[in-house]
């Protein structure tokens, strides 16, 4: 178990170093950073001095190590666009993205899993057929379209919910939150649904097919033969056996939600890191892009690590010996 | 009849019919099957794959897989009709009055729950015991089915047990609420031969001690001869012979049973060659008129081609064969005549 965690940690570090390399390559190969920093009338000597001062004449491996060392301490330099420290810019916006992503993920899990269980248990019921049909829409409509439709219905026609921004937030010092004001919560609803809908339908379909599979197994038949109640069979024996693949996918999807919050944040003018990234791309603000890349890489790695540990909690067959991990990712 | 007691039967199955609606019409998989099981009696049910023996067992415990359904007849347990009970009522009978054991112990247990948890939940479903009392009972059951070091094994997961040990756990699970009847569907088929004998001996001992009746479904005549008091032989969805196991084994009255017995190798007796029954059991869609066994029967007569025999007294057993009726099978039918 401990060896397994250590091995996974080492792998995670390797992944992060690779992401770091890509981020680093951005600096070196996407234009000349000196050009981005100085005015047009700067002389060649001044440029050379600056280049030397910033360590840009050092060999690439040394520069890479310096970059990684700084990144590990949260130093990503100054934004080309605003000349603010990139670390602080990102940290200011992380709460907005994380709160949105977590709401979207919870929405997807809390609605998608029960819907999947229901459609798996009663595949012929009309409600299941309805869920199936609706899920097709969720899977096939692009996120921005769903967002715009929701804005049209709930913000423009019904005037129930705000169409953009975070609404009111409460500053907790190091974190700004939407959860403490009614307006903040209202502002979260439409973006969360937009961001979570695709994941919801994905989870629903996954749970449904896993459930159909599990209900055919011998141990479910034997559980019936033992006279267990339907509740114990459906939500104990059956649901738990569908969890391993569901955890895998849910974990990957949480990463995807955070990474692809970009579109939703743009549609709803949500002041998160995704929006910051889009602005940075427009200005070729490489320090911000590099930092964003690393942040997303870090989140993915953390989520995957959590997923791996959850396997152990769910499946006793994995405990003890270092057996093969279940297929999935 | 050599039923072990004169008590009213524990289980009565009367004219049971199980059918499967398919696109090409309804298939009758169990056709007019009737038998009794007395309290504490072991009834063996043998037959080839597809003879309807497992379906009969599943119909009794009310777990036919859709679209299969009971199309007629009735099943009574202790005089109470159970084949038409609503699901929830039948659920209370399953596990409490009728235990079940399935073929493959490797897949019968939920891999994610410890065996103790599976035992305790079954016990608490049927008996009004506290968690602590249920655990004590679970421990006793594990000891009773011969799990060594039950105190430490109770919290282990199914994958930590061998196949034979898992089948012991499955038996313990079937015994949780001390049922009156156990339907054991091929309980030893998936096990090593050396383990089979142990499991059969265990099943026999437990049923004697608990006075539990068993319906033992298997295609292994050796297991039946070893364990059962009476045996029912099934062929193409019908019982073709039923009687005390000794008589059926030694003096089979139905040509199919005779063939079945002749095909068992036995030590001590020298056979030049084992007899075999030519042909194969007909598919449900192709059951011939008259006696279903007639195309493979060496003793068939004209009557067998047109009229279907019911069970009739034949020596110590009852067999569904015209040989045992006064009229006989009629004139012998040669192969050419039958094919014409």
Number of helices of chain A: 13
Helix content of chain A: over 70%
Q: Cα-atom Rg of chain A, whole angstroms?
A: 24 Å
Structural class of chain A: mainly alpha
Q: Could you give the order of the helices and strands of chain B?
A: EEEHEEHEHHHHHEHEHEEHHHEEH
The CATH C-level name of the domain at 1-97 and 181-192 and 216-250 in chain B is Alpha Beta
Largest sheet properties of chain A: 2 strands, antiparallel
Strand order of the largest sheet of chain A: 1-2
What is the fold named in CATH at topology level of the domain at 91-284 in chain A?
A: MetI-like fold
The oligomeric status of these chains comes to: heterodimer
Query: What is the SS-derived class of chain B?
Result: alpha/beta
Low-confidence stretches of chain A: 321-329
Distance between the termini of chain A: 19 Å
Count of runs of 4 or more consecutive helical residues of chain B = 13
β-strand number of chain A? 2
Spatial strand sequence of the major β-sheet of chain B? 6-7-8-3-9-10-12-11
Please describe what this structure looks like.
Chain A has a two-stranded antiparallel sheet. Residues 321-329 of chain A have low confidence and may be disordered. By secondary structure, chain A is an all-alpha fold. Chain A has a domain at 91-284: MetI-like (MetI-like fold, Orthogonal Bundle), CATH 1.10.3720. Chain A contains 13 helices and two strands. In chain A, helix 1 (2-29) packs antiparallel against helix 13. The radius of gyration of chain A is 24 Å and the shape is globular. With 340 residues, chain B is of the alpha/beta class. Among the domains of chain B are: 1-97 and 181-192 and 216-250, Rossmann fold; 251-276 and 290-339, no CATH class. In chain B, the strands form two sheets. An eight-stranded mixed beta sheet of chain B has the order 6-7-8-3-9-10-12-11, sandwiched between helices. In chain B, strands 2-1-4-5 form a four-stranded antiparallel beta sheet. In chain B, helix 4 (115-126) crosses helix 5 and helix 7 (163-174) packs parallel to helix 8. The longest helix of chain B has 18 residues, at 193-210. The model of chain B is unreliable at 1-5 (pLDDT under 50).
């Amino acid at each position: 178990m401990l060896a397994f965690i250590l091995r996974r940690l080492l792998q995670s570090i390797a992944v992060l170093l690779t992401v770091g390399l890509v981020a680093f390559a951005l600096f070196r190969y996407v234009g000349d950073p000196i050009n981005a920093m100085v005015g047009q009338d700067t002389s060649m000597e001044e440029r050379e001095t600056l280049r030397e001062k910033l360590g840009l004449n050092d060999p690439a491996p040394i520069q890479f190590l310096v970059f990684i060392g700084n990144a590990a301490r949260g130093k990503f330099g100054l934004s080309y666009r605003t000349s603010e420290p990139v670390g602080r810019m990102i940290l200011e916006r992380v709460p907005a993205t994380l709160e949105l992503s977590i709401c979207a993920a919870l929405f997807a899990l809390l609605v998608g899993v029960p819907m999947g269980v229901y459609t798996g248990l009663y595949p012929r019921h009309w409600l299941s057929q309805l869920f199936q049909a609706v899920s097709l829409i969720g899977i096939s409509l692009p996120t921005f379209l769903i967002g715009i439709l929701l804005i049209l219905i709930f913000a423009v026609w019904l005037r129930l919910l705000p169409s953009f921004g975070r609404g009111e937030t409460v500053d907790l010092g190091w974190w700004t939150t939407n959860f403490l004001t009614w307006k903040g919560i209202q502002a979260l609803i439409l973006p969360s649904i937009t961001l979570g809908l695709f994941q919801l339908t994905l989870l629903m379909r996954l749970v449904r097919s896993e459930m159909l599979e599990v209900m055919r197994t011998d141990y479910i038949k034997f559980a019936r033969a033992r006279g267990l109640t339907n509740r114990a069979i459906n939500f104990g024996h059956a649901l738990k056996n569908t969890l391993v693949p569901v955890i895998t996918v849910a974990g990957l999807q949480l990463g995807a939600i955070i990474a692809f919050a970009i579109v939703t944040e743009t549609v709803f003018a949500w002041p998160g890191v995704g929006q910051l990234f889009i602005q940075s791309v427009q200005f070729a603000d490489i320090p911000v892009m590099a930092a964003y890349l690393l942040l997303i890489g870090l989140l993915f790695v953390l989520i995957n690590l959590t997923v791996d540990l959850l396997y152990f909690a769910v499946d006793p067959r994995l405990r003890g010996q270092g057996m093969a991990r279940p297929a999935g990712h | 009849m050599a039923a072990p007691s004169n008590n009213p039967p524990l289980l009565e199955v009367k004219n049971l019919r199980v059918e499967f609606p398919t696109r090409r019409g309804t298939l009758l998989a169990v056709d007019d099957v009737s038998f009794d099981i007395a309290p504490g009696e072991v009834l063996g049910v043998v037959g080839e794959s597809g003879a309807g023996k497992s379906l009969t067992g599943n119909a009794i415990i009310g777990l036919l897989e859709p679209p299969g359904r009971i199309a007629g007849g009735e099943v009574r347990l202790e005089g109470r009709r159970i084949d038409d009970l609503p699901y929830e009522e039948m659920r209370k009978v399953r596990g409490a009055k009728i235990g079940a054991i399935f073929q493959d112990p490797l897949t019968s247990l939920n891999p994610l729950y410890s065996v103790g948890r599976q035992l305790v939940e079954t016990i608490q479903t049927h008996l009004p015991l506290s968690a602590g009392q249920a655990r004590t009972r679970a421990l006793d059951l594990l000891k009773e089915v011969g799990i060594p070091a039950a105190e430490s094994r109770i919290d282990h997961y199914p994958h930590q047990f061998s196949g034979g040990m898992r089948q012991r756990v499955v038996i313990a699970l079937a015994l949780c609420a001390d049922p009156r009847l156990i339907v054991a569907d091929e309980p030893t088929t998936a096990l090593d031969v050396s383990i089979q004998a142990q499991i059969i001996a265990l099943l026999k001992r437990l049923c004697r001690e608990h006075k539990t009746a068993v319906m033992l479904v298997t295609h292994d005549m050796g297991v039946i001869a070893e364990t059962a008091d009476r045996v029912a032989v099934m062929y193409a969805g019908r019982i073709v012979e039923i009687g005390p196991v000794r008589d059926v084994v030694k003096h089979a009255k139905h040509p199919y049973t005779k063939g079945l017995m002749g095909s068992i190798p036995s030590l001590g007796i020298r056979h030049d060659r084992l007899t075999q029954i030519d042909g194969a059991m007909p598919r449900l869609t192709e059951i011939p008129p008259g006696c279903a066994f007639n195309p493979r029967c060496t003793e068939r007569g004209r009557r067998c081609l047109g009229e279907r025999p019911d069970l009739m007294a034949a020596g110590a057993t009852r067999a569904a064969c015209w040989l045992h009726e006064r009229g006989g099978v009629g004139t012998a039918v040669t192969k050419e005549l039958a094919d014409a």
